[in-house]
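WARN no homologs supplied; continuing
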Amino acid sequence: MLVIFEGVDSVGKSTLLQRIKRKHHIKEIEVYDNGSRFKDEQTVSLAEHKILSSIDFSKDTYLIDRWILSPLIYNTVFRGGNTREERYIYNFRRFPHSKLIYCRAPLEVLRDRLKLRGEPSVYPLDKLGELLTRYDQLVSDIKSSGVPCLIVDTTDTIENCQLKIEKFIFGESYE
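OK structure emitted
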């Protein structure tokens, strides 16, 4: 299975992915614009979608921290364009054993989290609302297309978010 974590900066997707990865010893795929790189012993190095197509996701579970949606949405907000493109939904359909986890929090919470990070932001905070709206629209489209999606409100406790994600990945009987 291919499990994709998506959401804006500071929403908590990477933290949740890492907790699930460590607990269940699941492989992670990191995909970058210029290919992929090893992060640690559980991270598989892959070069974008062509190699993803060669993996049998029916046998093993892999996690991806941002894949198709984030580059699309961030480029759309900062360079213009349209996020409602069928080809991005098609990319999910190419992987029948895929699930999308959309980590979300209210705009004010995200603004506060970004400020608390103490890192210089790579984009103006006034763009955060537009990013969030674009994610909401595209995730809704993908969910409507039949791709299994879980929307996680990360204002809940980290333990509750993790449990919801584990049930979504492994089945309702998981505890």
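The first strand starts at residue 2 and ends at 6.
OK
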